[in-house]
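Support reply, case 0932

Customer input (verbatim):
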Amino acid sequence: MRKITIAIDGYSSTGKSTLAKQLAKALGYIYVDTGAMYRAVTLFAMRHHLIGDSEDTVTKLVALLPEIHLKFMYNDALGFAEMYLNNENVEKEIRTLDVSRMVSKIATIKEVRSKLVDMQKQMGIDKGIVMDGRDIGTVVFPEAELKIFMTASPETRAARRYKELLDKGDEVTYEEVLKNVQSRDHIDSHRKVSPLQRAAEAIVFDNSDMGLEEQFERIYNYALRIIQK
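Our regenerated output:
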């Protein structure tokens, strides 16, 4: 079967990564979590005390971008690739609410997006890839054969994220998580550089009241129809 590019965009905590992992595994494709890449840069900025809106702070972070090296390394025990920042496994650290609070701000910096988009495009040159994020179908792979735009109510997404954080042992409240989800929605949709928006040909997929199995089966079968054309 021919290989295609699958681009999955959408709001935070809609289950993009879960669906993308399932599709990649079922199809034998490469999976790339672009959100992890932006989170890793955010963690780097936090460690270097470069979180802020001032021009000086942004300038200093941009100057350090050449020192940021990102790579995914597959973990056989977990069944997916983990994010490494300068050869350090930061998978757990980048998933905290502290990083979630800051990642949308870092993602608005055009030099950061330019660096990561270039990396993402290189990853998909040979197709056979499933990539999720905010601008995959509009900026990274505008020619992708299958584009999905995922959405769900803020309350549903906050509940999912809240449970996920509690399961990891984080001490958070539902109200904190909901506020973060709403804040990220606003920033992602209104940033000047590559704002979150649905590609005209993308399939809108609202999974507010849908289980993981049903969601996967629908998109997987749709992908097969495209691949087999």
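We compared this against your earlier run and they match. Two observations from our side: The two ends are 9 Å apart (CA to CA). The chain has nine helices and eight strands. Please reopen the case if you see a mismatch on your end.
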